[in-house]
Specification:
Blueprint lengths: L3 H12 L5 H12 L9 H13 L4 E5 L5 H7 L7 E6 L2 H13 L6 E5 L2 H4 L13 E4 L6 H10 L6 E4 L18 H13 L3 E10 L2 E10 L1
Parallel strand pairs: 1-2, 1-4, 2-3, 4-5
Antiparallel strand pairs: 5-7, 6-7
Helix pairs in contact: 2-5, 3-4, 7-8
The structure holds 3,4-dihydroxybenzoic acid and magnesium ion.
The site of 3,4-dihydroxybenzoic acid has 4 residues, from loops.
């Protein structure tokens, strides 16, 4: 049975003009290239865009590019002189993302860095990045604890940090879950819980992608 929230997702997608030719073409290209359909929901892509716009972000870091769907949403929020770094482990996914970013007219602002994010993050300073205004974490959950530690190195007062997939159909609070990623998500939450540098909340979401949620924080 189709959940009501899928109808609601479609209703708002239509009324609030969430998708357009470019975002539709990204989803088509990702699917045609065999990428798993784990992009954020359209409404949440637009939410990320709006948040980065509210922040007036000039520098954005994304960990986990996938096919570039959220990268394009975030990249659209950048001002003319803005720059975004997006990190992707899977070379085939990075190829698709680069094409999608190019087709969205964002190739001069949004750079895809290939390889393990844990290798790329230490090299970002020599690439000219120092502090990011907005960070989106949406990669392998096992490394969320390591990613948040690095992200704090690249943060300053006011840096906005958003992380995807912190609810996982409610399994985040299920001690007996067999989902292997959950302990790492909880370790990630514990780091934030115990770090006085971040003020945070979590937003549970439903969408065509099911029941999940975002961690949202701001650095003091
Ligand atoms: C899945 C969903 C995600 O948003 C993600 O980043 C990774 C995996 C999933 O549903 O498996
Ligand atoms: Mg995700």
């Amino acid at each position: 049975m189709k959940d009501t929230w899928e109808d609601v997702d479609e209703y708002f997608d239509d009324k609030l003009h969430v998708s357009d030719e470019i975002t539709e073409s990204i989803l088509e290209k990702n699917e045609a290239n065999g990428l798993p359909a784990i992009e954020v929901a359209g409404a949440h892509g637009k939410m990320l865009y709006l948040m980065a716009k509210m922040k007036n972000a000039k520098t954005i870091l994304e960990i986990g590019t996938h096919g570039g769907f959220s990268s394009v949403w975030l990249g659209r929020a950048l001002s003319e002189d803005g720059q975004m770094a997006t990190l992707e482990f899977n070379a085939a996914h990075a190829d698709v993302a680069e094409e999608n970013i190019f087709n969205a007219g964002l190739a001069d602002k949004v750079k895809v860095y290939r390889g393990s994010a844990l290798d790329t993050l230490p090299s970002l300073m020599e690439k000219g990045y120092r502090h990011f205004d907005f960070v989106f974490i949406d990669a392998d959950k096992e490394n969320y604890p390591a990613y948040i530690r690095w992200v704090l190195e690249f943060s300053k007062t006011g840096t906005v940090i958003v992380a995807d997939n912190v609810v996982r159909n409610g399994r985040v609070v299920d001690d007996e879950t067999e989902e292997a990623q959950v302990p790492y998500i909880r370790e990630f939450i514990d780091i934030i819980s115990n770090d006085p540098r971040i003020e945070a909340t979590a937003l549970q979401t439903v969408s065509g992608k099911g029941y999940d949620g975002f961690l949202i924080g701001v650095v003091r």
